[in-house]
Amino acid sequence: MMHMTFYWGIKATILFDSWRTDSWTSYLLSLVALFAIAAFYQYMEDRRLRFKFLAVRSKRSPIAAPLLAPASFAVAGSPARLATALLFGVNSAIGYLLMLAVMSFNAGVFIAVVVGLALGYLLFRSGGEEDLVVVDNPCACA
């Protein structure tokens, strides 16, 4: 039976039927893995935003107003635009998988993901440069 409220316990099913925890060792390893994936999500999001910022900056003239710039920063089939779209897809997939893991309603899983996202943000995205790029990520983990 699937839990529909938060619970504490070492027995959890995370994402797949084969990813079950039934001991403290498997539970703690799962929490560490989710923590690392959440921090990696923030790292990948930082890479995507920096790549997009560099691609946009290289296409603009120095006096262009950022709010008046065209929506597309490159030709539709350019490598920079394709790479940005690929990174967005990877980040979205990781974000949704983290969301589904949290939907196991295990409180330890929830805490591991939130702390991983927070620490990842602190390490990779709190440098102040993210204010220069408009964030267009619809994922809740952004």
From TrEMBL:
<keyword id="KW-1133">Transmembrane helix</keyword>
<feature type="transmembrane region" description="Helical">
    <location>
        <begin position="63"/>
        <end position="88"/>
    </location>
</feature>
<dbReference type="Pfam" id="PF04145">
    <property type="entry name" value="Ctr"/>
</dbReference>
<keyword id="KW-0813">Transport</keyword>
<keyword id="KW-0812">Transmembrane</keyword>
<keyword id="KW-0186">Copper</keyword>
<dbReference type="InterPro" id="IPR007274">
    <property type="entry name" value="Cop_transporter"/>
</dbReference>
<keyword id="KW-0472">Membrane</keyword>
<protein>
    <recommendedName>
        <fullName>Copper transport protein</fullName>
    </recommendedName>
</protein>
<keyword id="KW-0406">Ion transport</keyword>
<comment type="similarity">
    <text>Belongs to the copper transporter (Ctr) (TC 1.A.56) family. SLC31A subfamily.</text>
</comment>
<dbReference type="GO" id="GO:0005375">
    <property type="term" value="F:copper ion transmembrane transporter activity"/>
</dbReference>
<keyword id="KW-0187">Copper transport</keyword>
<feature type="transmembrane region" description="Helical">
    <location>
        <begin position="94"/>
        <end position="124"/>
    </location>
</feature>
<dbReference type="GO" id="GO:0005886">
    <property type="term" value="C:plasma membrane"/>
</dbReference>
<feature type="transmembrane region" description="Helical">
    <location>
        <begin position="24"/>
        <end position="43"/>
    </location>
</feature>
